[in-house]
């Protein structure tokens, strides 16, 4: 039985964390699993409910900025987080470390020492000096997992060493859970969607410009003029950044100011029963 330390930089529940929780379900019976992450969110309760050991760690939530003083603070905080994780690794002596995001991998690469590191890439890294630095740190990983071929190409940036370490594993879907859904009436009842109304068109993901919700809303403005009985929903919470709150207000304004779309586009917020939405 292998002892595996999963490290996540955030305690919020986004797509990366949902993927992590699914992975834990598949591994917990055959391996000793420990999850290390911050405490200020719902992730720790989700992990503990699975009977998995949760270890709280302090991680500063880094945001994009050009302020040199804030950048220096972030740099020092990341180094300190790496030192903290190094101490945890020394005490736990895991056989393997899994870093669940780019930011998790940065910290884990500083603290993993000789312990094998698997770095899970789920987002676009970008170029520039910071991108070059992160790609250099990624060379410490034994394996780099990318959730798509596009992310693999973008992250490796033609670097032969990174390409040799890289594999593509798509996020898994449990079809048994989807097939077990027999009714989605509760969703229609919750949002007062009558029989015969539709089609229902939705988008799932936390509220952020990169998730494509603005394009979805602007498409809805055009679609509803041809299909006036159509209903639209955006399922996802506002996480991670203040600018995402501003972005949410922009989406609401577009929706509320359009006379056709008003009352026909629903913002569900965080929706736990996401499989029912997909099954509609």
Characterization of this structure:
By secondary structure, the chain is α/β, with parallel strands linked by helices. It is built from 12 helices and 10 strands. It has a 7-stranded parallel beta sheet with strand order 3-2-1-4-5-6-7, with helices on both faces. Helix 3 (68-92) crosses helix 4 and helix 10 runs parallel beside helix 11 (242-257). The mean pLDDT is 89.
Number of helices: 12
Rounded Rg: 21 Å
| Main beta-sheet annotation | 7 strands, parallel
Please bin the fraction of helical residues: 40-55%
Can you list the strand order of the major beta sheet?
Answer: 3-2-1-4-5-6-7
User: What is the mean predicted local confidence, pLDDT?
Assistant: 89
Quote the distance from N terminus to C terminus.
41 Å
Structure keywords:
280 residues, alpha/beta, 7-stranded parallel beta sheet, globular
Summarize this structure briefly:
The mean pLDDT is 89. The chain is globular and about 60 Å long.
